[in-house]
Amino acid sequence: MASPRWHGAIAVLTEMRRSPGVTRAAVAQRLGLSSGSATDITARLRELALLTETPAPAAGRGRPTTVLGPHPEGPVVIAVDLRHEDWRCAVAGVDGRPEVVAAAPHASRDPDQVLEAVGGAVRRTRERLGDRVRAVAVAVAATVQHGRVVQGASLGWGPVDLTPLGVPGVGLRIDNDATLAGVAEARAGAGAGAGTALHVTVEVGVGGTLVVDGRPVRGATGAGGEFGHLPFGDPALRCPCGALGCWDPTVDGRALARHLGDPPPPDPRTYALAVLGRTDPAATAAVSRAAESLGRGIAGLVNGLDPEVVTLGGLAEPLRAAAPDAFAEAFTGGLMAFRRATPPPLRPAALGDDAALHGAAATALDAVLTEESLTAWARLRGA
């Protein structure tokens, strides 16, 4: 628990992260603070360049209040989203809203070339913002164990060291992109308010995570959430991960290409989007088969994990929407009988393609908004 010096400040900053654009009056009400205490805490946070206050629009009678936001000279984190086809580098203040500052498609899948491009963007951002940068977090489309990439099947990678993406004196956090997307949806997206939220996303393969009270269930080594490598698929199919029968190749663009008799697409996501936009019988049949596999697999996850809500990211919701009857039949049929009357709601992800960036920023800020880190920030500010 934070010391009295920081307890109220961290609580106020946490509310600002939870509800960007929140007013001081709303924060005081949620935290049970008097108006005077809230004013004193926010004044101190202004002095430390941790937030700003701007007049809130008039709302009837009562004392005027202010809207809380990140200070223009305050601490920031760098969030990187390293995806199958491209990468993005963003900056977020203490409200957790990422702003993309650099992005590019992969010129090569060679890990050294990818890291050179992304690392250059991170270093330039650090040079521009200086000591304001307090943490770097990377969301990567790969299996992450003990904070290290051990396999990136969709990228064609084996173990890859991502520490070159860090900067001296700043903490580096590395996590799976679907895990971080699930964290973001559970905290501030379609799963907000649920104590136990299951996130399932389809990009190149299937990923996701179970989030309990805002924290992902990582497993013993941090590699939990590799849902696409559950044996829900065809046992005769060898997955690029090395296992037989994975769910991954029965749901994404590779599955659609196989059903249509096309060669494996170099970019399964773009290929899947094109097939989802078609209305010819062959495409419709291929989409239905993939939707059936998706629905059946999600039912299995619901049976095993018992979530309050399921959020669908990436191509999962478009795939369900393109073949709703096939999906619904497979999902309902796969549920245990006692669950069918009140299954958990299935909700489209709210944060779209930015979910992993939001999750990376949130994870980085978890480390920044601590007593130790804020004390270091205050010392840097001469306070």
What's this model, at a glance?
With 383 residues, this protein is of the alpha/beta class.
Task: Report the C-alpha radius of gyration, rounded.
Answer: 22 Å
Query: What is the topology, as strand order, of the major beta sheet?
Result: 5-4-3-6-9
- What is the CATH architecture annotation of the largest domain? 2-Layer Sandwich
Beta-strand segment tally: 14
Descriptive report:
With 383 residues, the chain is α/β, with parallel strands linked by helices. The chain has three domains: 4-69, Orthogonal Bundle (Arc Repressor Mutant, subunit A), CATH 1.10.10; 76-181 and 355-380, 2-Layer Sandwich (Nucleotidyltransferase, domain 5); 190-350, ATPase, nucleotide binding domain (Nucleotidyltransferase, domain 5). The chain contains twelve helices and 14 strands. It has helices at 4-18, 24-31, 35-47, 111-129, 177-188, 253-260, 268-276, 281-305, 316-322, 324-334, 355-368, 371-380, and strands spanning 52-55, 66-69, 76-82, 86-92, 98-105, 133-140, 143-145, 148-151, 171-176, 196-203, 205-212, 215-216, 309-314, 346-348. It has a five-stranded mixed beta sheet, with helices on both faces. The chain has a five-stranded mixed beta sheet with strand order 12-11-10-13-14, with helices on both faces. The chain has a two-stranded antiparallel sheet with strand order 1-2. Helix 6 (253-260) crosses helix 8. The mean pLDDT is 92.
